[in-house]
Amino acid sequence: MINGKMVQVIDGDSFKDQDDEYRIYGIDAPEYRQVCKDAKGNDWPCGKSARRALEQILRKGSYECDVYARDQYGRIIVTCAGNEQDLGAYMVAQGHAISASSYADPVYGAEEVRAEKAKRGIWQGKFEKPSNWRAAHPR
């Protein structure tokens, strides 16, 4: 059980508590420093927006998380649900993340299609896939 009020959100798809760092399975959110274009072609901080969205949904309560594995950085890969909401589905449906493409089938493909059609979040303008942005901006 994760108490959303007690975690520190790192970016739009990861957070940590006192003991561990977690990454949400099946999504890829813009990195914290990533900038996208809005509907008018202006820069907007999509990475900060994604982080804020995850922070707001987590603050609403506690989440039951299922563990898949650990990634190459030692983070625990999880799906989390609570308050009648799956965190990954929420982030993709609101346009704050894309359904991860490194999996055989997009985990949140239907949510991504709906977000794109509605021009929510990153879909309102232009954005670079988070994986491409990370490759171009190594830590």
Characteristics:
OB fold (Dihydrolipoamide Acetyltransferase, E2P), 7-stranded mixed β-sheet, two-stranded antiparallel ribbon, 11 strands
Describe this structure in words.
The chain is of the alpha+beta class. It has 4 helices and 11 strands. The strands form 3 sheets. Strands 1, 2, 3, 4, 8, 9 and 10 form a 7-stranded mixed sheet that branches. The protein has a two-stranded antiparallel ribbon with strand order 5-11. A hairpin with a 5-residue loop joins strand 6 (36-37) and strand 7 (43-44). Helix 2 packs parallel to helix 3 (109-118). The model has no long low-confidence stretch (mean pLDDT 92).
The counted number of beta strands is: 11
CATH architecture: Beta Barrel
Which whole number gives the mean pLDDT? 92
Quaternary state of this entry equals single chain
Structural domain tally:
1
Low-confidence stretches: none
Radius of gyration, in Å, reads 14 Å
- Summarize the biggest pleated sheet: 7 strands, mixed
CATH class: Mainly Beta
* Secondary-structure class: alpha+beta
Portion in beta strands: 25-35%
The percent range for helix content is 25-40%
What general outline do the C-alpha atoms trace?
A: globular
Sequence of secondary-structure elements = EEEEEEEHEEEHEHH
Distance between the termini: 31 Å
What is the fold-level CATH name, i.e. the topology?
Answer: OB fold (Dihydrolipoamide Acetyltransferase, E2P)
Q: How many helices in DSSP terms?
A: 4
